[in-house]
Amino acid sequence: MASVPARRSRNLTQNVVAALSERIRHGEFHVGEKLPTESALMESFGVSRTVIREAISRLQAAGLVETRHGIGTFLLEPRNEQQLRIRTENILTMLDVLAILELRISLETEAAGLAALRRTDAQLQQLRVILDEFAEHVRKKTGNAVVSDIAFHLMVATATGNRYFHDILKQLGKAIIPRTRVDSAALAENDRTGYLGRVHVEHEDIYNAIVRKDPDAARAAMRTHLTNSRERLRRAQEAAAQDA
């Protein structure tokens, strides 16, 4: 029976925390402003001092308020959420790009499998448009294939239905395309059109697996594509080292 009052106290505390958090979000209190006293909050919510103190303690843990002993409790400036931050400005060398490719192999292989299972018809159509645009850029040698290349990988990530795949790739931006970070001629072995043609074929393999809703084939095609990119980069790195 002793657990019943304790559970009720926890529920009361949760209610007070939720109510105060809502009032803070709606701007009832301003940054730096002192919150009502414990006595005022007790009267407002009809609960004990213990409940109010526990609620304030939870708000402190959440970084919403701070208590200055003998003075009161004050609203703090909202702190930014901790976010994954990959500093693309530090991706400078071939070794850096190789490290990014290792990350992408793990991330995008699974993304392709999930995309095959979850993609919508509309997303499939967008992938088709992006692939056709890539092929057109390669044919006309416009130099804009990078935009379509990035768009393809971002759309596959979007088709997973899990926004975190897309968020991470979008944060990487152009860093996901090795030829934007290193000597593209070396990567292409001095045959840019042929190089981009191979990339396009690899993209088509990924797309076709997603069309068929075949997650295993989609994973395999994405892994092959990114592993090939890593191998091309590795060969370019070795060639550069020999020249040096």
What does this protein structure show overall?
Keywords: DNA-binding, Transcription, Transcription regulation. The chain has 244 residues and is mostly helical. It folds into 2 domains: 3-75, Winged helix-like DNA-binding domain superfamily/Winged helix DNA-binding domain (Arc Repressor Mutant, subunit A), CATH 1.10.10; 88-243, Four Helix Bundle (Hemerythrin (Met), subunit A) (Up-down Bundle), CATH 1.20.120.530. 68% of the residues lie in helices and 3% in strands. It has helices spanning 3-25, 38-45, 49-61, 94-118, 121-140, 145-158, 163-172, 184-187, 192-211, 215-243, and strands spanning 65-68, 72-75. Strands 1-2 form a two-stranded antiparallel sheet. A hairpin with a 3-residue loop joins strand 1 (65-68) and strand 2. Residues 180-186 have low confidence and may be disordered.
How do you describe this structure in short?
The chain has 244 residues and is mainly alpha-helical. It is 68% helix and 3% strand.
pLDDT < 50 runs, ≥5 residues:
180-186
Helix content: 55-70%
Question: Got a strand count?
Answer: 2
Alpha carbon gyration radius: 27 Å
Question: Main beta sheet, described?
Answer: 2 strands, antiparallel
User: How many domains comprise the coordinates?
Assistant: 2
The assigned structural class equals mainly alpha
CATH superfamily of the largest domain: GntR ligand-binding domain-like
The proportion of strand residues reads under 5%
Q: Which CATH top level class of the largest domain fits? A: Mainly Alpha
Strand order of the largest sheet: 1-2
Mean pLDDT: 82
Topology-level CATH name of the largest domain: Four Helix Bundle (Hemerythrin (Met), subunit A)
The ordered string of helix (H) and strand (E) elements is: HHHEEHHHHHHH
CATH architecture of the largest domain: Up-down Bundle
- Alpha-carbon distance between the termini? 79 Å
How does the overall form come out from the CA principal axes? elongated
